[in-house]
Amino acid sequence: MAYSDKVVDHYNHPRNVGSLDKNDPTVGTGLVGAPECGDVMKLQMKINPETQVIEEAKFKTFGCGSAIASSSLATEWVKGKTVDEALAIKNTDIVRELALPPVKIHCSVLAEDAIKAAISDWKRKNATESERPAASSAAQS
Amino acid sequence: MAVKLPIYMDNHATTPVDPRVLETMLPYFTDTFGNAASRNHEFGWKAEEGVERGREQVAKLVGATPKEIIWTSGATESDNLAIKGVAEMYREKGNHIITEVTEHKAVLDTCKRLEKDGFEVTYLPVQKDGRIDLDELRKAITPKTILITIMYANNEIGVVQPIAEIGAIAKEKGVFFHVDGVQAVGKIPVDVNKDNIDLLSISAHKLYGPKGVGALYVRRRNPRVQLAAIIDGGGHERGMRSGTLNVTGIVGFGKACEICQEEMPVESARLRALRDRLKEAIFTQLDEVYVNGSMTYRLPHNLNISFAYVEGESMLMGINDIAVSSGSACTSATLEPSYVLKALGVGEDLAHTSIRFGIGRFNTQEEVDYVAARVVETVRRLRELSPLYEMAKEGVDMSKMQWNVH
């Protein structure tokens, strides 16, 4: 299978690899996928509670090159965006940007899920009891 | 000496044609191009001579007589002919076939088709080391059993089955024994008489011969095996396989077998040393790496390793100047991880991280060292990227995690 230049670039030079302190209340963590499915993405964002701007984003991914590229791209895209803007990112945007073939669309879906899971984790941490949203779909340890 | 890239180390998939084989084949394309079935002129006779020499060379490698070798287009056809041919011919005698779960698809899918046709098939499980349990085999045999089909060595993990023991059981019970010998023939000693094999599938391109030609050994005496043909036509190959013979392919196949036979003792020792060197280099430099299948009962040139927390396709992408293959779902047509590894009890998480190395005749020690270094470097890099490796280092028990399986 041939990879697009952008996938190869993200694979060879992944952006924003790493971890943030998951116990920090300003950090939202999204962990999606499953080892037995062959891909797991961990996406973390540090969000300014005043402005709701995503100031930092980090990822780690177990998965194929397209999964690594999708999550790397997601961190690039969410940085500097507000939470609402980040939630508007669609998997199809990732597919288009990385020129993913049909068999790799699930990688982009996973990246979108990871963004949503990280934000919902952050919202959960920062919500008052009464407005606490439903538990995130991210895997919980 | 600098290594030449890319490096080919996927010799279970196919092998390059040995230049000595090619040299033997060349005249048969242009000068000795006759149809081996043309009985009335020189061109046909010369082609037939080439075909018969090839038959002797292939037969000799496996301890058979030339008349017991039937030419086919490859081992998939040989497997089909052996299994369907016996099934149809001996249907009156019984409708039960025994095979194992880690067979090649050419055997498994043939058996599945026969099941639709009223046959009953037992798929023996394998043990953790990849070998079948002989007691389970004995228990599976019924008065209706007409065929046992078990591969000599597995194409993914290189595990060698106890073929001589299975052959003895088959003989004792009066059941025919077919062996898919694709990965083993030419690499380790295979003898149809010592192993009590009644039918043996062989492929040329796995032993440094050309693609598009294979053979089926069909025992002629003690006992004589009869086959119903699956391809009808001019009655070539004693009616068992019609179709004009692939003379160039057969000539090359024969020569390839001759070379394998002559060089096997030296070659297998050399490849084993290279394989062990590769394994040693990887295991001394990386933690959490696992060999899939028995190291004791294994082809000398095979290594199949799971690199925990590193997905196979991303691994292949990282070592893209090396040709190997992976049991990861992402690299398979079905998007399922390797059914062979699953059958060994390797978890799907680890199956996704497996890499198969197939060392071959033309690989050098320099190449092996280069591959080991690239693999180690890539695994380290990808583990830095792996949330699972991080969690493992933090002591998280991932088996107790609740994952959202998609």
How would you describe this structure to a colleague?
- The complex is a heterodimer of chains A (about 140) and B (about 400).
- Chain A is of the alpha+beta class.
- Chain A has helices spanning about 5-10, 65-80, 85, 90-100, 105-125, and strands spanning about 25-35, 40-45, 55-60.
- Chain A is built from five helices and three strands.
- The model of chain A is unreliable at about 135-140 (pLDDT under 50).
- Chain B is α/β, with parallel strands linked by helices and about 400 residues long.
- In chain B, the strands form three sheets. Chain B has a seven-stranded mixed beta sheet with strand order 2-8-7-6-5-3-4, sandwiched between helices. Chain B has a four-stranded antiparallel beta sheet with strand order 9-10-13-12, covered by helices on one side.
- In chain B, β5, α7 (about 165-175) and β6 form a beta-alpha-beta unit.
- The chains are: A alpha+beta (about 140), B alpha/beta (about 400).
- The interface of A and B includes residues 8 and 39 of A.
Total strand count of chain B, please?
13
Morphology of chain B: globular
Q: Characterize the overall form of chain A.
A: globular
List low-confidence stretches of chain B: none
Quote the distance from N terminus to C terminus of chain B. 48 Å
Distance from first to last alpha carbon of chain A: 35 Å
Roughly what fraction of the amino acids of chain B lie in strands? 5-15%
Largest sheet of chain B: 7 strands, mixed
So what's the oligomer here?
A: heterodimer
Instruction: Kindly state the number of beta strands of chain A.
Output: 3
Provide a count of the helices of chain B. Answer: 13
Query: Which two chains share the most extensive interface?
Result: A-B, 35 and 33 residues
